[in-house]
Amino acid sequence: MAGLIQQDGALQKLKFIPYNDVKFEDGKLVLNDNNLGQAYTVMFNPNNIAIKLQVDRDETQADGATSAPMRFKRIKPQDYTFEFIIDGTGANGEPKKEVAKEVNDFLTVVYVFDGKEHQNRYVKILYGSVLLKCVLKSVDITYNLFSSTAKPLRAKVNAVFTSCLDQELSEMINNPNSPDLTHKRKLTRSDKLIGVSNFIYKKNTYYLEVARANNFNTFRNLPEGTTVFFPPVSKT
Fold it and tell me: The Contractile injection system tube protein N-terminal domain covers which part of the protein (predicted)?
């Protein structure tokens, strides 16, 4: 599935984990900051995840022309849409929850502006074997069931997230002037993507982005002979 990077692990509920930094380093994980940063876990997993892929092209037209060459400019970041339900009726057999509080907890993690960082937070999204690194683009909340006192009992959340990379890696992947842009390497029987990425970049943080750049659905157990593109690191 395009854009979804898989990791080994047992199936789990959809979870949103906030970070302060686009590198998503453990040291930048938000923990117990006035209750900001505690990962939000949904009550019910979504039935669908929508992925939007976009190509940005130059639509400039010459005077009098009826069409444009539509020259390629860039691949836009991928959008991911999650739709899930928050229920406060107890219909699922679990203790009743306050819908308004659940909505607020979700918004605290993905939407609330952080005055210290001067932005809302970066979000790592975990869903079973799926791992995404994103920022919130938009969220729609629809309350569709109320008590006799107008207390919300059910809400539908439709949240759109945009994928993000740290600037250093983004420039590696998208630099059209790099002489090594088309350099690729074939994996041998003993090669693992994690090990090769660590050897090339001298860092242990880029293997997921390399997998994403190559449209791999997993970074483990790639077949022998698989051709992998490793974006060059600019030396400064």
Answer: 11-169
The CATH number assigned to the domain holding 179 equals 3.10.350
Asked if 58 and 91 sit in the same domain, the reply is: yes
Q: What share of the chain is helix, strand, coil (3-state, %, to 5)?
A: 15, 35, 50
The residues that bridge with 89 in the sheet, in sequence order, are none
Q: How many domains does the chain have?
A: 2
Same domain? 50 vs 109: yes
Q: What is the pLDDT of residues 200-210, one digit of tens each?
A: 777 777 788 88
Q: In the prediction, which pLDDT does 35 show?
A: 47
Q: Is 124 in the same domain as 185? A: no
Q: Is residue 141 within 8 Å of 133, Cβ to Cβ?
A: no
Residue the block writes with tokens 């994996």: 187
Q: What b/e sequence results for 195-214 when a residue is b if at least 16 CB atoms lie within 10 Å of its CB, and e otherwise? A: ebbeebbeeeebbbbbbbbb
236 pLDDT band, cuts 50/70/90, is very low
Does 234 fall in a domain? Answer: no
Average pLDDT, the chain: 79
User: Cα separation of 89 and 104, whole Å?
Assistant: 18
